[in-house]
Predict the structure.
Amino acid sequence: MFLQKYKKIKDFAQATIAQCHQTGYVTSIMGRRRPLPRIHARDQQLRAQAERQAVNFVVQGSAADLCKMAMIRIFTAVATSPSLTARLVAQIHDELLFEVQDAQVPEFAALVRASMESLPQAQALQLQLQVPLKVNLRVGRSWGHLAPLQEALDPRLSSSP
């Protein structure tokens, strides 16, 4: 059902696997290379595993590349800002966790959204993604108590009593 709805995903996976069979490696969006020598294995299970790893690396490795680019943009913006003092606490896969003063949340949230959602148009990197990046922002006193940004800024939007 998923592949019927998103037909280009199957094309992407097949093209990635074919390229890996041809070269023996795959690359992320920023050019990081992962060799997969088992792509040529006679054992079908080993070959199938390498094919799955090829597609997975391109997707997850590219997501990591984009996340790192966003971290650099955000760090640079905070370092040059006369008012922002936010700091990165952790990166968990494709999530970034920042510590931000309450008064700075709206400004910092706008910076994060703009930085991350504009990555597909990173002309300096000759990067042009076909799919828009959407960022979900959450805020709270601790990692375990995060709520969507709009609800946190305006409690009237919260669905809980």
Summary: Helices lie at 2-5, 7-23, 44-80, 105-117, 149-153. The CA atoms of residues 28 and 62 lie 5 Å apart.
